[in-house]
Amino acid sequence: MDFIFSDANLSAIWLTVKLATIVTVILLLVGMPLAWWLSQTCSWWKGPVGAVVALPIILPPTVIGFYLLVAMGPDGPLGIFTQALGWGSLPFTFAGLVVASVFYSLPFVVQPLQNAFEAVPERALETAATLRASTLDTFFSVVLPLSKSGILTAIVLGFAHTVGEFGVVLMIGGNIPDQTRVVSVQIYDHVEAMEYVQSHGLSAVMVIFAFVTLLALYTFNPTGRRK
Amino acid sequence: MIHARFNLAYTGFLLHAEIQLPMHGITALFGPSGSGKTTLLRCIAGLERTAGGMLRVRDEVWQEGESFLPVYRRRLGYVFQESNLFTHLSVRGNLEYGWRRTPVKQRSVKLEQVVEWLGLGEILDRSDTTGLSGGERQRVAVGRALLTSPRLLLMDEPLSALDYSSKQEIMPYLERLHRELDIPVIYVSHSLDEVTRLADYMVLLERGCIIASGTLRDTLARLDLPIAHFDDASAVIDTKVAAHDEAYHLTRLDFIGGNLWVRRVERAAGESVRVRVLARDVSIATTVPQGSSISNILAVRINAICDEGPEKVNVLLSVGDHMLLSHITRRSRDQLGLVQGMAVFAQVKSVALMA
Question: Is A132 exposed, middle or buried (0-12, 13-18, 19+ CB in 10 A)?
C-alpha cells in the first residue's frame, strides 16, 4: 500500500481534507446569509448577485484563477488590503488557496441553500412572527430545521467540490508540498513524473471518495418519485 | 378599544377601512370571499404592511405614521385557516414555541390550562404533527396562539378548512373559550352559521369596504343589509334558562319580550343560552293561533316590511328588545293586511340552540 500512502501522498490527502473542511465552514458562514437574502429579496440586485455567485459554474477555472491571482497580487485590491493588514501576499500560500476555493465553490453551497430556503413556506415565517419570534430567531428555529436536507447537500457539495478542484489550485497555489500541494495537484505531479502506479493509487482514492459522496447524497436526499 | 384605519390598493383589490372595535367579546369580520376581511385581519396583525395605516389597541400604538410595531412584538395570537403547525416540532414543541418567547412577566396562560381547555391531553406527547386530524391540528394551533398570552386573538376562518365533523368537534371548544377567557377575538368568517354561533359584534365587508358594523343582534336584523335577505337569514335571541319540564324533556328560555320552549338544555337556571331563529321558520298570525302544534308563539310588532323577490316579503318584527325576521309570501301579507306598526303573533317553528 505504500504506493498510495507514501508520505508525500498522505501529506497531500491531509492538506486536501484540511482545505476542504476550512473552506466548507467558511462557505456555510458566508453562504447562509447570502442564500437567505437571495431567497427572500425582491430587490433588483437579486439577478446580478445570483449571476456573479454562479459564475464559477461555467467559467474555466483558469479564468477565475487568473483574476484571483491579479486581485491577490501585490498590486491587486485584495493584495493591497492583505498587505496593509500585515498578512503579506496571498498567492502561493494556504490562505490564498482557501480564499480562491471559497470563490470557486460558492455556487455549490449557495444554490442548494437558496433552494431549501425558498421551499420554506411563507406561512411558516408568518406563523413564527405571530408567535413572538424575531426574524433572526425564526431563521434559527424554523428555517434551518426545515432546510436540513438542503444544508446537508450544501455541505457535501461544497466539501466535495473543493476536494475535486485543480485548475484554480494550480494557478493560485502552485505546487508547494504541505502548503498547496493537494491531491489533485499531486496526481498531476505523479503523471508528469511518469509515476503511474502512484497516480493510480491516489486517483482510485479520489474515485472512491467521489462515488461514496454522491451515493450518500442521493441516498439521503432522493429526488423524484418516492416508492 | 381597537381603532384601525387602513387603505390599501393592489391590482384589482382595494381595502378602505376605518373601524372601532370593542376590547371584549368576539367580533366577526363577515363578507363574501374577496371582500377584504382576511386582508383587514392581516393588516391588524402587521402581516400586511400598509403605508399610512393606523392601529391602536387599548393604550398602545401598533401603527401610526412611520412607526410600525413588528408582528413579533405585538401581543396578539393568530390562528390561520390552515393550522400551519411546525412540522419539525412535536405537538408539545408547537405549543411551547410561542410560550417560550413570551416574557415571563406577560405569561398569564399555562400549558396545563390550555391542554385542559382544548382537550389536548391525549395528543400532547405525539412527536409527529402530520398524523393529527384536521380538528386536532387546529386545536393545537389555537392552543399555541393562546399560550403567548395574547391581548388580542385573531382568527382567520379557522374552521373553513375542516370537514363537517371536525367543525362540530372544535366548535364547543371555541364557545368555551368565548365564555371563559377574557380575550377579545376578531374572527374572520364567511359562514353565517359560525358567526351567529360565536360572535357578539359583527363587521360586514363588501369589496374592500366596511358596509356595516354593530352588535350581532342589531346587524342581523337590518333590512338594508344583504344578510337579512339570505336564504338562511336569521335573528339571534340571547336568553336565560328559566325552567325545565322534566316530563316532556323541554326547557323554557326567557328573554325580555317573551319565552321559548326548546329541547332540554343541560344548563342550570339563570345561565345564558343563545338561540338562532331562521326567518323562514317564522310565520305570522293576526290572532293567537288555536290548535297548532307550534308551541312557541310570541306577541310581536311589525317594524318594517320590504319586498324580497317576486313572491316573498321580509318582515322585521320587534319582540321586547329583540328583533325577529320572517320571510312570508306577498300573498299572505296582503291577505292578512299586514302593515308597519301592527301588533301580530309570530309562530316560531324551530329554534336552534347556539351556546
Answer: buried
